[in-house]
Design goal:
The complex is a heterotrimer of chains A (451), B (321) and C (313). Chain A contains 9 helices and 21 strands. By secondary structure, chain A is of the alpha+beta class. In chain A, strands 11, 14, 17, 18, 19, 20 and 21 form a 7-stranded mixed β-sheet that branches. The longest helix of chain A has 16 residues, at 238-253. Chain A is globular, with a radius of gyration of 24 Å. Chain B is built from 11 helices and 14 strands. Chain B has 321 residues and is α/β, with parallel strands linked by helices. By secondary structure, chain C is an alpha/beta fold. Chain C has helices spanning 2-5, 20-28, 43-49, 53-60, 93-107, 126-138, 165-172, 184-199, 228-235, 239-249, 254-273, 305-308; strands at 35-37, 84-85, 114-119, 142-148, 151-152, 155-156, 176-180, 205-210. Classes of the chains: A alpha+beta (451), B alpha/beta (321), C alpha/beta (313). At the A-B interface, helix 3 of A face loops of B.
């Protein structure tokens, strides 16, 4: 098809929904040739063996042709359709499916624990949307040292403009980025808050055009007047359903018990004063160490098979506001210091909120920490994130009067300490209360001894 | 501190050791009355006498073999090969007798074999070789290659004292072209690498004459800060220094005057690929002489030996990567 | 050989069967401070210098307690503490090393001598010429023993040289002497004389020890290429049989001696079999010396040195 001087043909290609996914099936075309489509508007839905998802148009314009029919399975990267754009300055095919990451929902189907929406290996497209960086031609590749530094500091490489050949991100680019971060940024906003003094942060506002809701998504239901007064009713969102399903399954299959210890956080407070981190990285580090002491808690139970892990792959629950909850995993968390964990948590949370997580980011966890403490509650009975055998909930830190016994004299006195409760739900099929309590006591001991 | 040429530094090293230790003697072709093909032993005969400045028959195998015999009986012979190229005539004695003796028999062989190596002056195929790789590949031999006068003296003194067979690569093109301050008296230079220049953006690794080419090439490269690492010792190879430099700059160009395949630089590249992987921000680049005998005619010779511009070009490319 | 057939000896197995006098006779003439480069059919030399049988068996079996600790095999060994330098497989490389040791003696004005053995085949290589020439031109105190056992593996001397090396010694400036290699006493005498020459400063001597290799080149060689008449002829001249006959005329109880030797051998075998194999983790150790490790003196059992050098009883 020829293009006019102001028109350009943009390819829509089959996205890669996970590292090991190699193909996808077109489930439904939402647009037909000739239809007008806006950039980021859903143009079709696809199905893969990992996930079903909607795919957004990479460009605004008119659908020129559909190349793959419904029900056909093609390899990742194959062109599905072409759009004749009305903006000659639009980017080439490389940015197809790109911004889908950002836009896609929360209303995409799939497990709550799995990736949501389009992940893409097409990191560069994300960059296109968010910054003024010209995209690299072709998929972005990073040199070993760039990846190492990025990993150590939890840097999202898509954020970085490359000054090397063809826009390659080089070591000085990452180093400079870190330097700017260190000097600039109140990045606190993106950290999952924990301390009661930290204000609750609403989810970040992304400048997206409003999407038309797709069928499975709960549309704003009409208000109905009835004998019980006005009601608003509608089906649960896909996401809600998915989360709900997993929660129910967990409660139905595991023998869930919850054990609670209280912990004096003053030592952590003191350390925080100089480091500037939130509580969470300290809790994470102490948890990792305690898990190494109590390996049966760093484990999964699938059917009858109980697997203990030497490495700790720590899941950190991240709230996505009304959209729900997702648990990205810090793999080999035992290799990271408090500082390393802080950086990684920050990075993952940001990625989660920007829908930048890949299936590998949410897979393979051996233990989960959830921390809704910012909301003020002091105790909770969390649901185990299967197939793991335990989950640790960190509630609010509240100043309380506590009794302290002097070691030398035995005299009691009252002091004011920042106290919190650690509530751990665990699977009684895999372990007993004694172990759970010992673990929690060890955790508490480590936190109270923080330097 | 006296200033002397690379050649004078080598003479000085031998003179110091021969004065201090009667076990040390030098043997080679035309080194006595003639003072050596390159005059390194000029004046030695008068000072030390014919027993200690031995003119040998034209027999490289004989030179190395008898040196082994003398060494196991407690002497410290320094064998001068007239040109490094001729060591191939004594290869068997060096690689099979000298190198393996201690490992096999527990008998130490303190010989130092000096090889005037390298090209750049129309020496042709048999007077321009850099055969160090043959000896890096022979377990039991140490191999050193100074680039400065100061290092030439210190490395040679250390080599003479080392109870193992040491192959000393003296680059003959540097004999009179390189001059520097050289510490008077006796001193040892350790068998380690030396930072010829510190830098941040890229590292050039070289040894021998190529260190000078590397320094010149990277003096002024559009403001880039280039580190130059002078290996100095090939066996033992200073792995820590190499990896530390890669960790710092993340980009590395390795220069070999020797033929590319399996040159010393190939071993350095393999080391970096294996243990410096996490620190690399670009491919490991090599600049080396192609695998051909060194030709005689200047235009041909210059076309094959790495020139300053070749090193510059490689650095520029990698800096921009 | 028995141990070899029992599978206890790794690698190849060489022996000097039928040539024992060449090394036994010659080594007997060497002084403790002399130095020896011993070849693969010259086991007697090691024994005379003082290496116990147990260590030799251990060496062959690659045990940790062997002379080279398992680093070298069969007869590629030399106990430096007894003044012996272990051979390399490239022949006759050790001729140059012996010449070098002799060179050191001369440079230091010492009354000492070096000796080395090499075969008829090895004289075809360049190092033979370089060593002969070097020793001749520098008049070094070295004894070159050419062990002419008629065959270099399967190559008879007729295929090895046009002119017998012993005749070529003159061309290098020193005498070449042919000796009955199967007569230990003749070997001793020839070596003693050569040694006198050497320590007197008159330079090297080439001794051609004429003998016959009665076994194959190694255990894996059945030597079918050797005409059986030749083997028979030489069997009649067996060097040990000759010494036995001589001993008998001196009323030595040969049977008792044999029993004594056998017992010593058996004991050595037992001791060696009890030694451990070397630890694989040590394979990369001791490539380089941290300090000098030189040669020391070995046994020089002949009591006649003082007389021979005229330094009084």
């Amino acid at each position: 098809m020829s293009s006019s001087p102001t028109e350009l043909l943009v390819d829509l290609t089959m996205p890669q929904m996970g590292v090991s996914v190699v193909e996808g099936t077109v489930a439904e075309w939402k647009k037909q040739p000739g239809d007008r489509v806006e950039r980021d508007e859903i143009i079709c839905s696809i199905s893969t063996d990992k996930i079903d998802t909607d795919v957004e148009s990479p460009a605004s314009g008119r659908v020129a042709e559909l190349l793959v029919e419904v029900g056909a399975t093609v390899e990742v990267g194959v062109v599905l359709a072409r759009i004749a754009t009305d903006d000659a300055t639009q980017n080439g095919s490389a940015s197809s499916a790109g911004t889908s990451e950002a836009a896609v929902a929360l209303d995409a189907p799939g497990d709550a624990g799995e990736l949501q929406g389009d992940t893409a290996v097409e990191h560069d497209e994300t960059a296109t949307e968010r910054t003024s960086v010209p995209p690299a031609r072709g998929p972005r590749r990073y040199s070993p040292v760039v990846m190492r530094i990025a990993g150590e500091h939890g840097v999202d490489l898509d954020q970085i403009e490359g000054s090397g050949r063809d826009g390659r991100v080089r070591k000085p680019d990452v180093v400079a980025f870190l330097e700017r971060e260190r000097q600039g940024g109140s990045q606190a906003a993106e950290e999952p808050p924990m301390h009661i003094e930290s204000p609750y942060k609403p989810e970040p506002i992304t400048p997206k055009p409003p999407k038309p809701a797709s069928a499975p998504v709960a549309a704003p239901a009409p208000v109905v007047a009835g004998p019980l007064g006005p009601t608003t009713s509608g089906p649960l969102s896909r996401m809600r359903q998915a989360i709900g399903g997993r929660m129910l399954e967990s409660l139905q299959t595991t023998a869930t018990c919850t054990t609670i210890v209280e912990c004096d956080m003053s030592a952590v407070e003191a350390a925080r004063a100089s480091s500037g981190f939130t509580y969470l990285p300290y809790v994470a580090r102490a948890t990792v160490e305690a898990l190494r002491e109590f390996p049966p808690l760093n484990a999964t139970l699938e059917g009858e098979t109980f697997t203990q892990y030497e490495s700790v792959h720590l899941g950190i629950a991240v709230s996505l506001g009304q959209g729900g909850l997702i648990v990205p995993v810090i793999h080999h968390a035992q290799d990271l210091s408090v500082e390393g964990l802080a950086g990684r948590i920050k990075g993952l949370a940001r990625k989660a909120r920007d829908n930048g997580l890949t299936p590998d980011d949410v897979r393979g966890g051996t233990f989960t920490i959830t921390n809704p403490g910012a909301f003020g509650a002091v105790l909770a009975t969390p649901v185990i994130n299967q197939p793991q055998v335990a989950i640790l909930d960190c509630e609010a830190v509240v100043k309380r009067p506590v009794v302290l016994t002097d070691e030398r004299t035995g005299a009691d006195s009252i002091a004011i300490r920042p106290m919190t409760y650690f509530c751990m739900s665990w699977d009684h099929r895999a372990l007993d209360g004694a172990l759970a309590a010992q673990f929690l006591t060890a955790l508490r001991g480590r936190l109270e001894a923080t330097t | 501190m006296p200033t002397m040429t690379y050649l004078q530094a080598i003479s000085d090293a031998m003179r110091e050791e021969m004065r201090a230790d009667e076990r040390v003697f030098v043997m080679g072709e035309d080194i006595g009355a003639f003072g050596g093909a390159f005059k390194v032993t000029d004046g030695f005969l008068d000072e030390f006498g014919a027993s200690r400045v031995m003119d040998t028959p034209l027999a490289e195998s004989g030179i190395v073999g008898t040196a082994v015999g003398a060494a196991v009986e407690g002497m410290r012979p320094i064998c001068e090969m007239q040109f490094s190229d001729f060591i191939s005539c004594g290869f068997d004695q060096l690689v099979n007798v000298a190198a393996k003796m201690y490992y096999r028999q527990g008998l130490s062989v303190n010989i130092t074999v000096r090889l005037p190596s390298g090209g750049g002056f129309s020496g042709g195929p048999y007077h321009s070789q850099n055969p160090e790789a043959w000896f890096m590949h022979s377990p039991g031999l140490k191999v050193v290659a100074p680039s400065t006068a100061q290092d030439a003296k210190g490395l040679l003194i250390k080599a003479i004292r080392d109870p193992n067979p040491v192959v000393f690569m003296e680059h003959k093109h540097l004999y009179r072209r390189v001059k520097g301050d050289v510490t008077a008296g006796s001193y040892e230079t350790p068998f380690t690498a030396r930072l010829a220049r510190e830098g941040e953006d890229l590292t050039v690794i070289a040894y021998g004459a190529m260190v000078h080419a590397a320094m010149e090439a990277t003096e002024d490269l559009g403001g880039a800060s280039v580190e130059v690492l002078d290996l100095r010792s090939l066996v033992p190879l200073d792995e820590e220094a190499i990896l530390a430099s890669v960790r710092k700059t993340s980009k590395v160009v390795i220069v070999d005057e020797a033929n590319m395949t399996c040159a010393a630089g190939a071993q350095v590249a393999a080391l970096i690929a294996e243990r410096g992987w996490e620190d690399l921000d670009g491919p490991v680049v090599r600049v080396a002489t192609p695998d051909v005998p060194i030709p005689f005619s200047p235009t041909l010779e210059q076309a094959v030996l790495p020139q300053v511009d070749d090193i510059k070009e490689a650095c520029r490319e990698l800096l921009a990567y | 050989m028995t141990l070899y057939r029992q599978g206890k000896v790794p690698g190849s197995f060489y022996d000097g069967y039928g040539q024992e006098a060449v090394s036994a006779g010659a080594t007997w003439a060497m002084a403790p401070e002399d130095r020896l480069c011993i070849l693969h059919r010259d086991l007697a030399a090691h024994l005379i210098r003082g290496v116990p049988p147990a260590r030799i068996f251990a060496q062959y079996m690659g045990r940790d307690g062997g002379v080279t600790g398992g680093r070298e095999g069969n007869v590629h060994f030399g106990d430096r503490n007894l003044g012996c330098v272990g051979m390399v497989s490239m022949l006759p490389d050790m001729m140059l090393v012996a010449a070098g040791m002799a060179m050191a003696f001369k440079l230091r004005d010492e009354t000492r001598c070096a000796i080395t053995w090499f075969g008829d085949g090895s004289t075809s290589r360049g190092d033979f010429h370089e060593a002969m020439n070097w020793a001749g031109v520098q008049k070094l105190p070295v004894i070159f023993v050419l062990e002419n056992n008629q065959y270099a593996y399967s190559t008879p001397t007729a295929g090895q040289f046009a002119v017998n090396p012993v005749e070529r010694a003159a061309a290098y400036g020193f005498p070449g002497v042919t000796v009955d290699g199967n007569d230990a006493e003749a070997m001793f005498e020839a070596t003693r004389v050569a040694r006198e020459r050497a320590i007197a400063g008159d330079g090297p001597t080439l001794l051609e020890a004429v003998t016959m290799r009665m076994h194959g080149h190694a255990a894996h060689d059945d030597m079918k290429y050797v005409p059986s008449e030749l083997v028979e002829k030489w069997r009649a001249k067996d060097p040990i049989d000759l010494q036995v006959r001589r001993a008998e005329t001196l009323d030595v109880d040969v049977e008792a001696l044999r029993a004594e030797i056998k017992a010593e051998i058996e004991a050595g075998v037992e001791e060696a079999l009890a030694m451990a194999m070397p630890d694989g983790d040590t394979a990369t150790d001791r490539l380089f010396a941290d300090e000098e490790a030189l040669l020391s003196d070995g046994n020089g059992p002949w009591s006649g040195f003082a007389h021979a050098s005229g330094e009084g009883a």
